[in-house]
Amino acid sequence: MHTLTVPAVMERFKEMNDFIERESLAAGFDRKTTNKILLAGEEILVNVIHYAYSNGGDLTISCGPAPGAGGIVIEISDSGVAFNPLDAGEPDLSLPVEERPIGGLGIFMVKNIMDEVRYKRENGRNVFTMTKRLPGEGSADS
Amino acid sequence: MAPSYAVEVAGDNARVTLSGKLDAVSAPQLAEELKKLVGTKIAKVVFFAEGLEYLSSAGLRVIVFAKQKIGPATEVIFVRAQQGVKDVISMTGFDGFVTFADSFPA
Question: What is the C-alpha separation between A14 and A135, in angstroms, rounded?
Fold first, then answer.
């Protein structure tokens, strides 16, 4: 299990993205699938960055092997305001249009890409867990 | 490494050359460029996407922006998009208003 904890700010996004990229490739996913996993990660991370904290805080990404035959489990957690991304939220109309979520589109993509997604609120933290299995292990796609 | 997006207007076409990643970091910069087209007579926004390796929903938002804000009748064309990029556009149902092409002009 590898873990990265960084301030939940856009300036650190590349670091978060690079971490998931390394873990995905190390888990045996090809470039194409890794890009899709990064896409799912981006949706969740950007949500945390934009909405979790009003006065700043950290987010933690943990990556480990999927139980069973192979794949990756990515857990993204924060101690910000309780928010379940699986309940696709109301769009924030105060944001400029290009930053506004296209009503639940991002989370739809996450569900589509990953084999399993879960949210729990635990000890004052939002914990979002998503699993992608290697092809041939009951994966959602190749 | 700040990506730069070349937006070039020729007649009623806007030609946008994309490269690298169009993600939460880079999409707002492209949106700024495209905002300059709002209020102009643009019939087609042509994205030259051969060099685009990664497109996220933040990037898709920019495409929606092109469609909604420049003009509802604006045609959005992706030229030589890589399969991964096409997959993302199709996965979200956006292929309904994006035309894929091998070249432009066709």
Answer: 27
Chain B residues whose C-beta sits inside 8 Å of any chain A C-beta: 23-25, 27-28, 31, 53-54, 56-58, 60-62, 64-65, 68-69, 83-84, 87-88, 91-92
pTM: predicted TM-score of the whole model, two decimal places: 0.84
pLDDT of residue B64: 82
Q: Which domains, from first to last, does chain A contain?
A: 2-133 (3.30.565.10)
What does residue B53 show for φ and ψ, rounded to 5 degrees?
-100, -20
Q: Which two tokens stand for residue B75?
A: 């045609």
Question: What is the distance between the alpha carbons of residues A72 and A67, in angstroms, rounded to a whole number?
Answer: 8
Q: Which residue has the higher pLDDT, A90 or A32?
A: A32
pLDDT, mean over chain A: 88
State the pairing for strand pair B75-79/B98-101. Answer: parallel
Q: How many CB atoms lie within 10 A of CB A20?
A: 22
Query: Best residue in B56, B60, B65, B92 to probe A by mutation, most A CBs within 10 Å?
Result: B56
